[in-house]
Amino acid sequence: MRNPFKLLLPALIPSWNFFDVIAPSPRIEYALLRSVGDASGDWREFRPRPDSVAPLAMLARLVWNPRWNETLFLVSCAERLTDHPTPHSEDEIFKRIAADLAGEASRERGDAERPWLCFRLVFVSRERETIVREVLFQPAPRRLAEIVVA
How far is residue 17's CA from residue 6's CA, in Å, rounded to a whole number? Predict the structure, then answer.
């Protein structure tokens, strides 16, 4: 090999041409509803980013961070839903939200009162001094008990 650094350079410094478009990713918000037509759900951001991360935790995340990898997969599903909706991407987001709700220690789910789960994809942008929230996609609600969590 004549110059191995020349071969390694593209892997170390990726080209910005790799991305088709540089744009904000949609945020995933979910709500638990009383019925299919209920509009009183309390919309919450799914897996919001922490305000801060300790330096030691940041170093550990460089090596092992399966939850963040799964969150990146969900962002990919959300982006696909905004461009070309498919049942697969919709199913994956429903499954991950249901799995997180099932694993919550507080059990704030309230299955009897709010058995329907819905999510929406929201773009957040700034226009001058105001923050604008645009809902891009919202599927029909599904009964939480019927979502198969793998």
Answer: 18
